[in-house]
């Protein structure tokens, strides 16, 4: 093992860990903004409670993402100076835009949102969280545009061994970027949706006195009685309806984002066929150029012609194979091993698709289970009037179905799936490009810093691994503690219906105040 191998491990470890927070920040910020918009438009207290509850989870995650992201930029100078020298003139513009426009927009308005409660007018405060959410997505745009340039370099020329930008607009509108950006951002919304589903499912189970395994851990909460949580003063019916609201919102967000992921994934597959055929071949484990190439679900289980259909929208199209591409690259670029780690790319592709589809499928199932049903009460709610609505067209009453306990448990247990899917997608994207850091221009072996020794990289890798492990424990502890505690207890004001003649009997009525 040499310094190059350890430098790649270090960048992979730190990037994967940082990538745990990025998609959650992107999706959760928009979700919190949506909750606050619902509160602004309806004035309903439970939307405000959910806004503050998920807003705190968003802030914890945002802070950890900023801390871990700083290391990424340092590594360009520490371990990858040759790479930085080559791409610096191209990367400078999108990275500067990310810092000066997107990140400052996000952080400035997030600060206004944090400290603006009860200080800013409601409309301006709402605009602040939307500006912060837009900033997160703009940040993703510029970073992904720079990353897409490494896979399909455009708008540049090589002068004295360095890439010089000739067209910023071509870099920002790279066809690879235009497919990759909505794909990754939509996947981030799936991750955030899965996170909200897990949190909402856990809170629903807790209200019912159930554990994730289905065993009863306590007596179900009763109206007006607390279970030790911060939202104990909110009546039981309102609490269960509140968590059903957040769960339904996450179901809709996850299902819609899943449609975008599938559509942009199809476009990305066609671009791989044209721009990065080695990555596509490795993802399928295809060794030879094949007309009417099949798609392997798992080794030994194939769908005839499916890979050609996905890659070129033509079931008879020829898809290039790893061995044949290797031979052609040797003729074009000279003798070298141009084949990525095929097993890692192959299985990353299937984990990405399988776990992503499982998450979206869970959301579609949840929308069906919790739909409003006409003509009577849903199962388990016979004879109750709670949650019923009139259908304006038929005159029939529509009942809001409760969330089944088994489905709430499934949401909690499915928490790792979308995160594993998006990490597998990142591994597919980056490892599949090897041995290039810039496709067709710069090899990874020529990108590492020549003056960094094996011992130096080993020490920094060890330090970062331990440090990030500590941060992972801290992050998980903060999130779990907040989720278990529930929403903060709302402020109270004296009940105005009571007279001052009996001050000792004065009750305090919970009210959610802006």
Q: What descriptive keywords fit this protein?
A:
single chain, 15 helices, 514 residues, 3-stranded antiparallel sheet, mainly alpha, globular
What does this structure look like?
The C terminus is likely disordered. The chain has a domain of 309 residues. With 514 residues, it is mostly helical. It contains 15 helices and 13 strands. The protein is globular, with a radius of gyration of 26 Å.
Short account of what is shown:
63% of the residues lie in helices and 8% in strands.
- What characteristic shape results from the CA principal axes? globular
Radius of gyration over C-alpha positions, nearest whole angstrom: 26 Å
- Alpha plus pi helix count: 15
User: How much strand content do the residues show?
Assistant: 5-15%
What is the number of strand segments? 13
* Head-to-tail CA distance between termini: 59 Å
Average pLDDT: 84
Q: Portion of residues in helices?
A: 55-70%
Q: Which strand order spans the largest sheet, edge to edge or round the barrel?
A: 7-9-8
SS-based class: mainly alpha
Describe the main β-sheet briefly. 3 strands, antiparallel
Order of helices and strands: HHHHHEEHHHHEEEHEHHEEEHHEEHEE
Return residue spans where pLDDT drops below 50 for at least 5 consecutive residues.
222-230, 375-388, 491-514
